Amino acid sequence: MTTPDFPPPVHRQRPSRRQVLTILAGSAAIPLGVAALRMWGPQPVFHYWYGEALGAEASMQLWHSNAGHAKRTLARMVSEVLRLEAVFSLYRPDSEISRLNRDGALADASRDMTNVLERARALADVSGGAFDPSVQPLWTLYENHFRHTADPEGPPPGPLAAARRVVDYRKIDLTGRKVRLASPRMGVTLNGIAQGYVTDVVADLLRNEGFDHVVVELGETRVLGPHPDGRPWRVGLKDSQGGTGRSIDLVDQSSATSGGYGTVFDPAGKNHHIFDPATGLSANSLAEVVVIAPRAMDADALATAIFVAGEDRAPALLALAPAARAMLTRKDGTVVNI
Fold first, then answer.
1. Which residues, at least 6 apart from 67, have a Cβ–Cβ distance to it below 8 Å?
2. CATH assignment at residue 111
3. Which of 129, 242, 300, 324 could be stapled to 256 by a disulfide with Cβ–Cβ 3.0 to 4.6 Å?
């Protein structure tokens, strides 16, 4: 039986669209070395932050003996998350990505925006377009369709074809700090990669601050070091109903999950938020993809790309990130480890 490494948040403002991981633990035994140190100095304890980032429930936990340092560091990390939300959040009308979608161009994009766009376009190239950051018009089409009609089949062929015509990552022009969309109807979403990027930025800053036992969950999960008792961090994988069954062990690794159940438009779940750019339809060859990789941005983007591209292309896509592996759940419920 497992118990949480930290207690659940008391209040949650918005259901997560993509976060399907929760940290679990076995018995919280304390190593003898740590117990001995506690006799002579400040006691290391967990310090927590709970909140929301990029539309997902978020949390950070740090193990440290200096409570003041831990609290000050958490406050700086929250400020960093807010700074990055001002770049990537589609919920904020004043964010860089919202302004890009509204105006069709950014004259002086931040380094964060250009870094993520460059990585997104590179992955789009090698995935043959399975991962495409320009699918936002499809999201807009589906969201509008299901807001105004109960038709479970999804958008009609005409509007679907029109939306597909402006989905093409190759029409995102990135020159230095300037970003331009080739068509006024284009739109960009970085939800399949930006959460991983934000997770990596915060985790890297925490490592530089000297924190060796860390869990960062900012839409995707990254852990630093092992659990303080010496074992791996245990990450429980939630199913589509929110229950926790399977788990994976992580040490200095990241995990990300893609599944159509994250945001569904119809009761049957046929139409959901992960689109296949080649068809304009929701990708449905797999039920779920979990990717484990050293860095959260790679895990995030690869989970989306594999969910769209399918099982046959998973090995080639995983080869793009060092030490990446995946757990694929087929529609019949069987699981394949790659």
1. 42, 45, 47
2. 1.10.3980.10
3. 300
